[in-house]
Amino acid sequence: MTLEQTPVTARTDVRRPAAATLPATPTRPPARPYFKRGMLLSTGALAWAAGMVVIGSDPSGGTEEAVFSTVSGLFQIGLLGLLTVLWQSQALGEGRLARFFLRLEAGVLLLAIASTFVDGIGVSDLDKTGWLLLDLCWPLSMLGMFLIGIRIAVAGRWRGLSRWWPMVAESWAIVSVPAYGAFGSTVAGYVGAAHLCVGYAVLGQIVARKER
Asked: Could you tell me which residue, 193 or 181, shows the higher pLDDT?
């Protein structure tokens, strides 16, 4: 007698249990959301400081003007990044006036960048009123940054060192411009370079390490 064992055919009418799905984990914000913009500010400040040491604060000739405009333009772009950080973190406050002032400063700074660009390619003419007004946007933007530094300290939304250091960094024009008038371009270049390193380069590192 022969015994045969036939395997049971698999049922096709039974669904396999669905794989267990893990609950979606919420997306975490980056630990240092302003890191790149802080590093850009530090890099721009150090680049402009180096340009001041090598060239001085009053470049002459096409080559010097092009190099000086490049490094100072990099610093200005870093300032634009700083303004976006101030906007996102509401460092000046939540009111309309704070937002308006940041927009106004950004507009003046963009005009200052345009002035730096035309100086670098050698097409500006300060004997003409239009070019002179455009050139004035650079010191006006730095004065605006100084007022922003004061407002950050008063608002108190940034804590610790980040509350007070913007006022130190953004006093650049208040310190450097009088040095230019009192001691000339050579000394003013060293003063401005030192202030950039102590002020904006350090501020960039503070911003880069902020967690919110």
From this structure: 193
